[in-house]
Amino acid sequence: MKRFATVALTALAPISWGSTYAVATELLPPDRPLFTGVMRALPAGLLLTALARTLPKGEWWWKSAVLGILNIGAFFPLLFLSAYRLPGGVAAVLGAAGPLFVVGLAALVLGERAGLRTVLAAVVGAFGVSMVVLTAEARLDVVGVIAGVISSASMGAGTVMTKRWGRPEGVGPLAMTGWQLTAGGLFIIPVAALVEGAPPALDGRAFLGYGYMMLINTGIAYWLWFRGIGQLTATSVTLLGPLSPLTAAVIGWAALGQALSPVQLVGMAIAFGATVAGQLAAARTPRPFSSTERNDQNISMDLTDERVRR
C-alpha cells in the first residue's frame, strides 16, 4: 500500500506536465519558450530553497548544479527546440522514449536490471503514445529530432544520477528540488537572453499562467518527482512519463475542443495499460535499500521540511 501511494503521488508530476501545452497556448506570450523555462524554474527553485532553509555544502554545490542542468537547464531548451522544429506528435513520441534511456542507464550506473516485462512496457507505452499524437502529416527535421533525443537522454541521465547520488545526510527532497530548479533556471537565463532578447510585457493572463507554471507545474510537480526517485527505482519512476502526453490529449479534448479519434482512444488505452504493467513489473524487481531511503526514515516529508535533523 505504501508503494502504491508513492507511485500515485509521483504520477501527479507527469500528469501536471501534461497541462503545459494548454497553459502555454492559452495564457502565455507566444514564441518565448526559453523565458517560460526561466519563469518556471528559477522562482520555484528560490521559493523551495527558502522554504527548506538549507543550502548545498561541499561537493553538493557542483552535484546539484549538474543535476539541475541535466533535469532542467539543458532539458527545457532542448525540449522547446524539438517542439518548435517538429510536429507536436513527433516531439511527444521522442519524449515518450525517455524510459528506454533510463532502463539502459539504470542498468549501467545503478545495477537496476530491468526484466523483459519492464522493457516491453516501455516500448509498448511509447507505441501507445505514438497512436495518440502522431498524424499522417507529421514530418521529420534532423535538428528537431536530435534535440528531442538529447532532451530525453538529458532527463534520463538526470533521473539516474539523482538516484545514484541520493541526497546529503539530513536533507529532504524539498531542498534538493529547490537547488536543482535554481541551478537549471540560472543556466537558462543567458541562453534566453541571447536567443530571445529582453523579457516580454506581461498581462494578467500571463501572470496567472506563470504563477501556475511556477507553483503547480514545476515547484510541486518536481518535488513529487524527485521525492519519488528517492523512494522508487529510477525505472519505475520514468515509466510514469507517458502519463504526460496522455494528459495533454485529454485536456485538449476536454478544454480546447480537440477531437479524439478511435485510433487515439485505443492508443491511450494501450499507453495507460503499459504504464500500469510497468509499475507491476517494477514492483516485483528486488532492489537494495538506498541511502536516500534511509534518509527518508529520519526526516519529515512535509512541505516546510521543519525536521531536517536527526
Could you describe the largest sheet, including whether it forms a barrel? none
Number of helices: 15
* Succession of helices and strands: HHHHHHHHHHHHHHH
Q: Ranges with pLDDT <50 over ≥5 residues? A: 297-310
Secondary structure class reads mainly alpha
Helix content: over 70%
Oligomer: single chain
The number of strands is 0
Radius of gyration: 19 Å
The backbone outline, from C-alpha atoms, is globular
Distance between termini? 26 Å
Report mean pLDDT, rounded to a whole number.
83
Fold topology:
Layout: H1 2-17, H2 20-27, H3 33-52, H4 60-73, H5 75-85, H6 88-96, H7 98-110, H8 116-133, H9 142-165, H10 173-196, H11 204-231, H12 234-238, H13 243-254, H14 262-283, H15 291-296
Description:
With 310 residues, the chain is mainly alpha-helical. Helices cover 74% and strands 0% of the residues. The protein has 15 helices and no strands. α1 (2-17) packs across α13, α6 (88-96) runs antiparallel to α8 (116-133) and α8 (116-133) runs antiparallel to α14. The longest helix is centred in the last third of the chain and has 28 residues, at 204-231.
